[in-house]
Amino acid sequence: MHASLTTALSLSGAVATAGALVTHAAFGPESQLFGRTVISGRDATEVAFTYDDGPNPTATPQLLEVLARYNARATFFMIGKHVRVYPELVRAVHAAGHVIGNHTMTHPWLAWQPAHVIREELTGCSRLIEDVIGEPVHFLRPPHGARRPAVLRIANSMGMRTVQWNTMGFDWRPIDAEEILQNIDKGMRRTRRWHRGTNILLHDGHQSDVQANRSATIAATAALLDRFAGTSTHAVTVDAWV
């Protein structure tokens, strides 16, 4: 093979590899290449129920009832534009002892945003939440898990740790509770094989439909908590892993 062609192919392969690494760093929920994020602890009996995209007047109150029934606490990553409309739901979540985190104002892909937009998205959401609950926000979950170094750097400058996940219910898809449970069981088998806690990504809201139907998520949550009752497996909030 001609030397110049060999060199070109080698460079092409290197570029493809670098591109794959950057993509994984930006979108792989467990990647730490762009900076340290909170995933889980080393106790395999710990499970964090985390809910994105709320508050949602049709789902969040029902979810609070289920969690209270099992005396379980969860973490809610809320979108600022929804917080503005439903502050009473934010207060209810906080009053019940759950952790509330920042999920930006409008749910953009932060990996593609300039630094000033990232800061505006995070600052606006935190201010709204803090005005409602009277406490600082300590955790951020980037929408879609998408980030770049600037996202983590800006979050850190605001006193927030970035939280990702290691198990997905895939409940943003139109699937039933049984399918959500199957997805979570698959993730839990993997985390337990690695002797890690399980950080479950679920949704009590939707980025654009403020009253999205999350009945399947609520049913799956109840089924999991019922399964865990009387066992060593127990629910924690993400601050347990900091």
Secondary structure layout plus pairing:
Blueprint: H1 3-27, E1 46-54, H2 60-69, E2 75-78, H3 80-85, H4 87-95, E3 99-102, H5 115-133, E4 139-140, H6 149-157, E5 161-162, E6 167-168, H7 177-193, E7 198-203, H8 215-228, E8 234-236
Keywords:
45% helix, 242 residues, two-stranded parallel sheet, alpha/beta, 2 domains, TIM Barrel, six-stranded parallel beta sheet
Describe this structure in words.
This protein is an alpha/beta fold and 242 residues long. The chain folds into two domains: 1-33; 37-241, Alpha-Beta Barrel (TIM Barrel), CATH 3.20.20. Helices cover 45% and strands 13% of the residues. The chain is built from eight helices and eight strands; from the N terminus they run αβαβααβαβαββαβαβ. The strands form two sheets. Strands 1, 2, 3, 6, 7 and 8 form a six-stranded parallel β-sheet that branches. The protein has a two-stranded parallel sheet with strand order 4-5. Strand 1 (46-54), helix 2 and strand 2 (75-78) form a beta-alpha-beta unit. Helix 2 (60-69) packs parallel to helix 8, helix 5 (115-133) runs parallel beside helix 6 and helix 7 (177-193) crosses helix 8. The model has no long low-confidence stretch (mean pLDDT 93).
